[in-house]
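Good morning C.,

I know you're traveling, so I'll keep this short. The sequence:
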Amino acid sequence: MHKAFEEALRKAGPTDAAITADLAALPDAHWQRLFARMDGLTDADREVKWGGGGEVSPGVTQLPYPVYSDAIQEIRGLLPIAVHDWPKWIRDNPVFPEGAGLDERPVADAVRLATAYLRGERFSDGAIQQAIENGALNAIVDRLRKWTESEKLG
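The tokens, ready to paste straight into the viewer:
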């Protein structure tokens, strides 16, 4: 029964064609802003500081949390996502975690990888930091750029 549920989830997720169609519907200005922000990142923008971790009242300690630069926050908001079973996808996909080989995969896998990190941040503070440090963020944006420059129709 568990395998049937997993198969149904996989089939319920968007196809490569559906994800690509969603990307094609985004205006050129969206892509220009994403690429400009990525191209303009400085080392300081990429540096992740951590807040929290201290006692906020007697016996109550706030958990540490990542503090991302405004530039990284904007890039996070510009990255496309796809609703899919990302925890299973990352277990079965060779491009996770650092995006190795992503440039030769369908652009939909860049969106799936972006989704894994963006959703992953909700459950594990620092997932975006991992993507910055291991090169996945660069690989995702590079693949999206390649698609917009040489594969996108229209």
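Safe travels,
E.
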